[in-house]
Specification:
Strands 1, 2, 3, 4, 5, 6, 7, 8 and 9 form a nine-stranded mixed sheet that branches. Helix content is 38%, strand content 21%. Helix 1 links the parallel strand 1 and strand 2. The chain is an alpha/beta fold. Helix 7 runs antiparallel to helix 8.
């Protein structure tokens, strides 16, 4: 197989990190097998306190440090320094499985109308439908996850997970990059919706796979919950209208805090119920 880089099919990898440490090292090592399809690896350390320790990989890696202005702002800053025709935004706690970058590059190359491409997330999800106001309210109350499409089949998607997101350079530029008003969460959802408005579809490549350590966390962190609510409301205000935004605001302000509190109080008993259910299933008491 000819190396795609000779045909101009290669990507710069952009990673926004915040004291990622060992996770970042594993992320970089996962890129070694994709080295022939990678131009440069650019890392933005956004205000972390730990030094950035880079393992020997043979990759062309550059590190830039700056204030923590949010995920989208860090990605935009790195994009301005990149030059490849395609750009892969990759979380520092994500690992790309061998052969996945090539599959994503060829997916975009073979679907000229697409401006973004996502991959399957091991143990998680990536192929999603655009959320409605009802979806956002139910998610705020921890009652229902966002609506998913078939994770096993490649095809056109509404939006894909930003933990491993490949974009076509000109399409990303035409959309104006990430909206830096989203400090964390919903950046990729907003981006895919704006790309669609410009006539650029999003593609989901089920054959490309990545592991995302942060995607499976069940811990309730107050600051993350606040950032999620903040971004959720911004998304509703931008794309769902004033009425939907007001309903979601009321839900977030009045109903979400007690729902999170109940979830936190019940979480210690989760393993008890799981073990008891397993015992019944296996014929135990």
């Amino acid at each position: 197989m000819a190396k795609p880089r000779k045909a101009g099919v290669f990507a710069d990898v952009l990673i926004v990190s915040h004291s990622a440490g060992g996770a970042l090292a594993k992320c970089l090592r996962s890129l070694v097998s994709e080295r022939q399809y990678i131009g440069r690896v650019l890392i933005y350390e956004n205000g972390g306190s730990s030094p950035v320790l880079l393992p020997p990989t043979g990759l062309d890696v550059s590190v830039f440090c700056g204030k923590n202005r949010g995920f989208g702002a860090g990605c935009n800053a790195l994009f301005a320094r990149s030059c490849a025709p395609y750009v892969l935004f990759l979380n520092p706690d994500a690992r790309l499985l061998p052969g996945s970058l090539l599959k994503m590059l060829l997916a975009l190359k073979n679907h000229p109308g697409c401006g973004a491409c996502g991959c399957a997330v091991v143990g998680g999800f990536s192929n999603m439908k655009f959320p409605t106001a009802r979806d956002l309210c139910l998610r705020a109350l921890q009652l229902k996850p966002y609506r998913q499409k078939d994770q096993t089949r490649s095809g056109y998607a509404d939006w894909v997970l930003g933990a491993c997101l490949l974009v076509e350079r000109q399409a990303f530029q035409a959309a104006g990059g990430f909206d830096e008003g989203f400090f964390l969460f919903f950046e990729e959802t907003d981006l895919c919706l704006r790309l669609k408005a410009l006539g650029h579809d999003t593609y989901y490549c089920a054959q490309a796979r990545a592991e995302h350590a942060g995607g499976g966390s069940e811990k309730i962190r107050p600051m993350r919950a606040f950032r999620h609510a903040q971004s959720r409301l911004r998304y509703a205000r931008k794309h769902l209208g004033r009425r939907a935004c007001l309903c979601l605001f009321a839900c977030t302000l009045l109903l979400e805090p007690p729902a999170l509190l109940c979830l936190a109080l019940l979480r210690p008993f989760k393993n008890v119920f799981v073990k008891k259910g397993a015992a019944h299933a296996s014929g135990g008491i």
